[in-house]
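Predict the 3D structure for this chain.
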Amino acid sequence: MIPESFIHEVLARVDIVDLIDRHVRLKKAGANYMACCPFHSEKTPSFTVSPAKQFYHCFGCGAHGTAIGFLMEYQGLGFVDAIKELASAAGLPVPDTREGIEGKKPGNDWRTLHSIMAIAWNFYKESLKKSEKAKKYLKARGLSGEVAARFGLGYAPDGWQNLKAIFPDYERAELVQAGLALESENGRRYDRFRDRVMFPIIGAKGEVIGFGGRVIGEGTPKYLNSPETPLFEKGRELFGLPQARQALRDENLAIVVEGYMDVVALAQHGISNALATLGTATTPQHAQKLLRQVDSVVFCFDGDAAGRKAAWRALENTLDFLPDNKSVAFAFLPESEDPDSFVRQEGKEAFLRFIRKATPLSDYLIFEIKKHCDLASAEGRARLITEAKPLLARLAAPSLRLQMVKRLANESGLTQAEVERLCGIRGYTPPQPKKPKRVPPSLSRRLLRLALCQPERVKRIPLEKMPPGAERDALTVLAEILPGLPPDSNLAQIMERLRGHPLEMFFVEAQSDELMRGPAEQEILDEQEKEFEDVLIRFAEEARGAGFSDLQEKARLFGVSGLSAEEKAQYLTLLTRQEN
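Done. Predicted structure below.
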């Protein structure tokens, strides 16, 4: 991996305002810069870039990140490629990264799971080289060694405790936490993946965060996926994305299929812009990620009931993120066919012709709701409008929605104005999300925000006295990474250090309001320091009040004699303060 110190140096050399302004026209807005977000369709600018914090954040869609993150999202680069591009522009030679993380020994911090997954991945890859059975299976599926290496395929040997050979401390809790091992009811530890071709799932930093295992021959389940772990949330990840980035840029089209083998088989036949969801239906996060990468998405599913159900879920979860300048379509394969078998039998060009004939989202939506409605009756036509109403309300593309309203008017025998009134559509614009009522931040949230402005402040926070919660967890993490940060770190350097951490999004939410403030000039620093000291005082007062309440309740239940000598002295001291 690229050393953390080099990442910090790159971020210190790069000006995020100059970088983003080369791709998106920024306008000065006070201390920050603003633009219409490049990652979703909007008319009012909500995309904010802070030169002081070297961080961007969209208050509309939630897109955020550093200069590295912007290149990854905007140009579809991988983590390492984004750093190399920024380093090249800054005139910095990139350190040798061949050592990788396979050789790392697991540590005691949150990165232990990354190291464990990397060690397991290396074991699975080496096991594939030694297994004639697994290699024969892949060759029978038409896969070359080159494609298997490109996707990092491996093999989990048959047997209950093969990982014990590479993890002498096989009973360590992290193996279960990483999803590599399970425990039986009698407490016996065993490997989760056995006799399966292994497909690694790669995260934003190029590290393995999970696995999918395809059984060889007969057996159930056919596909076995890693469970949800601190590293892996299947509703946010897409298999094959790192390998598909270049093809997605070239084709400006993403083909979403159901299985890992489908993605790999299509790549074998020269179709490299295919991705797969990870054993789950398409989620809103999937839809948002796909539409940030490309302008066109085709969901290619089986034509059976399960495939059509999956397609409908994909449609529902895409509506909120579909602008007028992008398209979504659906292609249904014949029964008993999947993309793997289709492309092997019919070839690349036949598959691409099939994709080009995919049904647009608008046609599929109206076709599906019409199936449940008898348009020969007034009741059926009324049901058509009723079923379309919630879907139209969610559709983010105003021009497309207007055209669908006209089609529904024609199908139902109503006028366009009548359909709009019945569906609650006004002025042909999508409904604006209601702004949540602003709740004053808690003392713990204010401490976190102020600590992010100046990380050294975390040393002055009595973490042991904070109430349990995400804020205390986040401040504890900040205290742990502080020694590895350069002096006077900005927000970008902190957030890159936390990339992939389970609390990453919580940190983003905690500091988003701070992006609207000015640069770190002396008067603002003085103001922040005064606020920080005030919050510490109030925090201590609340802690004393809580302690007094606990002692008061204990004295009520058991009498003063029920308190220990130390508790009596503390109770009398707090009681005197309360009276004064």
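The first strand starts at residue 27 and ends at 29.
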